[in-house]
Amino acid sequence: MARVATPLVLVSLILLTLALYVPHLGAPWVYEDENWLRQAPQAAQSWRAPGRALTSQSYHLTWQIVGNEPLLFRAGNVILHLASGLLVYGIGRALISGPAAVVGAGVFLLHPLNSETVSYVSARPDLLSTVWILLATWIAVACATPWRWPLILGAVWLGALSKETGLLGVPLVALTLLIWRPAAVRRPAFMPAWVVLGAILGATWSSVRVWLEMNPHMGGSWYAWPDFLRLQVTAVWYLMSQLLTLQSFSIDHDILALGPRWTIVAVVLTVSTAILIGIAWRRHPLVAWGLAWMGLAVAPRVLFRTNDFLNEHQLYLALVGPSLLVGAAGPWLWRWCPLAADRAWWRELQEHWTSESHGGPYRTLKGLP
Amino acid sequence: MQQGGMGGPNLSTHPGHLRQGSLMSLLRCAMVAWAVCAVWTTDDRAQLWADEPGLWADAVAQAPAKPRPLMNLAKQYVIDGDVAAADAAYRQAMALASATGRSQDERIHGVGLAATNLALLRCRAGDRLGALAITTAALKHRPVSTTLAEVHSWLELQRLSCS
Questions:
Q1: Closest-CA residue in chain B for A21?
Q2: Closest CB from B9, B42, B65 relative to A111
Q3: Could you tell me if A123 and A316 are in contact, meaning their C-beta atoms sit under 8 angstroms apart?
Q4: Which of A150, B4, B75, B143 shows a CA-CA span of 20 to 30 A to A248?
Q5: pLDDT tens per residue, range A163-212
Q6: Could you give the C-alpha distances from A136 to A53, A82, A85, A95, in angstroms and in order?
């Protein structure tokens, strides 16, 4: 039954995603889209690494086909979003279970927090780099081929050529393997080699160095480190809260107006998350992985002091972890009974409760879980 | 309470079991409602992204104290030819950008860009002196946005060449 149901549900999710986005493919350009469009004709000359060559090429290729018409540009975003959703399913299936993976993919595909990334042509770098990182992760956990390491490296490289944050593929793949496939990384030289590789990749990306040294007159932040950290962490949790509350989505959030209460919540959540990752690492790998994935994916936003706070489309990669967490929690909650998770325990309690000879309901709790 | 055939409780009609069942149903209903709400909101957001003036109006409603959404809404008013609304929005954006609690970036670029756009609006209407008055007043804010300084110099040159 599940063999038939899973593909059917997946196809339904894809069709629903298409139904949500396809009617608006031809809408006019929005905000910074025209900046990218202006560069699109020249993109052919900029095919060199490091940089965002792959993203530029994707714009250039689309521009060569349709010129300034937005339809195909947006269709490209929708296709990349569907690819991301399917890869989330693939990773979820390899790590947890089919039903949880389907729900996780559904959350990722249909959640309004991702609508900015899909609808905004300028968010193509986030989409493209996420697809490559997810592909690298999927290969790492689901493909047993001896060619997987070159394939993983190739996918991470292409992710970094889509957007600098694609370099996050290095720590994210390492995190996934450490938690889910520890046998694959048990060789003593593996982790140091992986760290060195990540450092070399990061060092070769000139824009990473530029970001580290960014001053306020060149797109850097005017805030001192503690204030920037406080505000950016608040932004992360404020936007993440929308995952559940489904409210206050916007192209431009006002983090400065959130006030000290949100800062306290954000600090408490950050500390609790760090502790939870440590506690759950062995016993509940999905919880540790989902939260650590989210943390690693937003880390550059906290490390590099840019003049702007987090936007919704910049959370696209980070949402993979929470989506699979919600995906796993969904089927579990569906089966869960609020009064008694264990039916046998509940039935036993009921019997004692109604028995003539019991000495009160609470005595029956002795020895029960 | 209805009793089962063996003298034990009939769980299906036991009040506790009924409560358990109804709580489960409630939880499931809440989950379905959340999923429906999520898809509904995604549809709303996708529609909003197809309408840039609506998108910025929504951003202004979400962040009424932030100057940037208001400036982008003003730009939409200019595109639609509603000069009066654009003028008012740029003025409000200038006031918001220089309000207490806003960032240094907003004080420089927010005030600078709003004043620049306001001056250009006046210029387009043929009121170059009015435009110059706006940039002169905005230049009193320190530090000064480069764009604003450039537009002010250009307006000064225009005034000198006319006089």
A1: B46
A2: B42
A3: yes
A4: B75
A5: 988 999 999 999 999 999 888 777 777 778 888 888 887 777 766 677 77
A6: 19, 17, 14, 14
Highest mean pLDDT among A359-363, A364-368, B80-84: B80-84
- Spell out the residues 6+ positions from residue B161 whose beta carbon is closer than 8 angstroms to its own: none
Among residues A237, A297, A242, the alpha carbon closest in space to that of A263 is found at: A237
Q: pLDDT tens digit string along A121-139?
A: 999 999 999 999 999 999 9
Dihedral class, residue A31 (left if φ above 0, else alpha if ψ from -120 to 50, else beta): left
Cβ–Cβ under 8 Å, residues A81 and A88: no
> Could you give the 3-state DSSP secondary structure of residue B142?
coil
Per the CB < 8 A criterion, the answer to whether B66 and A254 are in contact is yes
CA–CA separation, A83 and A58 (whole Å): 15
- CB-based contacts of A186: which residues, under 8 Å, 6+ apart? none
Q: A192 burial class (0-12, 13-18, 19+ CB within 10 angstroms)?
A: exposed
| Alpha-carbon distance B124 to nearest alpha carbon in chain A (angstroms) | 23
In 3-state terms, what secondary structure has residue B9? strand
**Residue pair A120/A315 in contact by the 8 Å Cβ criterion:** no
Residue with the bigger pLDDT between A1 and A278: it is A278
- Give the C-alpha separation, B30 to B38, whole Å: 12
DSSP A187-221: STTHHHHHHHHHHHHHHH-HHHHHHHT--GGGTB-
Residues 6+ away with beta carbon under 8 Å from B34: A246
Q: What does the radius of gyration of chain A's CA atoms come to, in whole angstroms?
A: 23
- Give the helix ranges, DSSP H, for chain A: 2-21, 33-39, 53-66, 70-95, 98-110, 115-119, 124-142, 148-162, 169-180, 190-204, 206-212, 225-245, 260-283, 285-303, 320-335, 343-354
Helix, coil or strand: residue B67: helix
Residue reference for tokens 């899909």: A118
Do A293 and A320 meet the contact criterion of CB atoms below 8 Å apart?
A: yes
Rounded Cα–Cα distance for residues B94 and B88 (Å): 10
ipTM of the complex model: 0.86
CA angle A162, A165, A170 (to 5 degrees): 100
Binned at pLDDT 50, 70 and 90, residue B7 comes out as very low
Interface of B with A in 4-63 (CB under 8 A): 8-9, 11, 14, 16-17, 19-20, 23-24, 27-28, 31, 34-35, 37-39, 41-47, 49-52, 55-56, 58-59, 62-63
A266 contacts A299 by C-beta, under 8 angstroms: no
